[in-house]
């Protein structure tokens, strides 16, 4: 998610490579990632029949669009024909309205240099934007980008989406928090797990047809999560997207959904491309060697 210390990053890469070799069914780690709140004190339940190995979907690219190579993508939304994007890094954080076809930035609000912007979501006529370690959620008018208010929260902010009633937030751990859009107060939490084991590093979020989709930081996997139970219902393996000159820090991060036309868009940090994809059923998916 962020440019953290190399030692921590290398540790994550080794663990994730091994875990995703088993299609992420055993991807949870027992260690607490740096700069992260400790896991919930409630242990995950024992694996049941309803938590059998989740199916793994692949993808087909429908369209490819240009994307700003300088955008360190932290949040992505699609609304009324346009993309809305949050970009991170201190001194470079912004909120943007982007033309899908050309990738051109039509409107931009730049954050003060001390803020590291994170996930965003559109809720009614407002845009909510998290910050990583600043503990601030900014709220803007969706049309003018004028700041309307802000909320404080404890811990880190990573991904943000909504289900039409509540804001849904990740903090980099296995916990997803549902919040009141009027007060930002916690309503409830779920622990995300696959086969009874916690799934950490939940990053950018999108709510798609009754599921929470979550990028898993430093991987090419997307988890499709039951918002009531926290169980991973399926994985989407995005390995192999044709991103030229992709660096090690330029991870998959950014999911947007066009609800009217049922289109799914994905991109990543400092990617030069944004992709419209459709899923390939597990029975037809290309198996990994």
- CATH second-level architecture of the domain at 74-240: 7 Propeller
Mean pLDDT metric: 86
Count of DSSP-assigned helices: 1
Q: Widest sheet: strand order?
A: 16-17-18-19-1-22-21-20
What is the total tally of β strands? Answer: 22
- Poorly predicted residue ranges: 3-49
Shape by Cα distribution: globular
The Rg value, from CA coordinates, equals: 18 Å
Overall helicity: under 10%
Helix-strand makeup class: mainly beta
Strand proportion: 35-45%
Largest sheet: 8 strands, mixed
Under CATH at level 1, the class of the domain at 74-240 stands as: Mainly Beta
CATH fold call of the domain at 74-240: Methylamine Dehydrogenase, Chain H
CATH superfamily of the domain at 74-240: YVTN repeat-like/Quinoprotein amine dehydrogenase
Report how far the terminal alpha carbons are from each other.
28 Å
Order of helices and strands: HEEEEEEEEEEEEEEEEEEEEEE
Question: What does this entry show, briefly?
Answer:
With 289 residues, this protein is mainly β. It is 5% helix and 44% strand.
Task: Describe the SSE topology.
Blueprint: H1 6-20, E1 56-66, E2 73-79, E3 82-87, E4 94-99, E5 105-110, E6 117-123, E7 126-131, E8 136-141, E9 147-152, E10 160-162, E11 167-170, E12 175-179, E13 186-191, E14 193-194, E15 197-198, E16 202-208, E17 211-216, E18 221-225, E19 232-237, E20 252-258, E21 263-268, E22 273-280
Parallel strand pairs: 1-19
Antiparallel strand pairs: 1-22, 2-3, 3-4, 4-5, 6-7, 7-8, 8-9, 10-11, 11-12, 12-13, 14-15, 16-17, 17-18, 18-19, 20-21, 21-22
